[in-house]
């Protein structure tokens, strides 16, 4: 019998249903997360850090449910893209010339999964779904801040 996911869990876990987009659901989820980031005031680090922390803590249980329902690291679960996107955008000016490179780098790190990100996918109990995107978000965060420091 398939694991039941209620409507609220589906809404949150699928990143406002972006996980059900037929193609490139990870990018679709990241774009929804970016749209939320663009809401005035959302860039406040306190707001972002609270939401990132909350979604990491609740996301593990949701990821596990989605894995039981859809299989390992399911495309339907895009809450991890929200977390990674927002980590990537932390503490940068809300200006397109900062946001766009951060978003592109984030997607590259998430898709290519350089070492040791790929290994993090293998962590069980729902954590692997989240940890690879958290790590890709931090890779982006550090690279973006280093680049902006030297080129600003």
Automatic annotation (TrEMBL):
Q: Which domain of life is it from?
A: Bacteria
Where the record annotates domain YutG/PgpA, the positions are 12-147
The GO terms describing molecular function are: phosphatidylglycerophosphatase activity
Q: What residues form the membrane-spanning segments?
A: 20-39, 46-63, 83-106, 127-151
Q: Name the InterPro entries for this protein.
A: PgpA (IPR026037), PgpA-like_sf (IPR036681), YutG/PgpA (IPR007686)
Keyword field: Membrane, Transmembrane, Transmembrane helix
One annotated GO biological process: lipid metabolic process
PANTHER family in the record: PHOSPHATIDYLGLYCEROPHOSPHATASE A (PTHR36305:SF1)
Name of the featured protein? Phosphatidylglycerophosphatase A
Taxonomic lineage of the native organism:
Bacteria, Pseudomonadati, Ignavibacteriota, Ignavibacteria, Ignavibacteriales
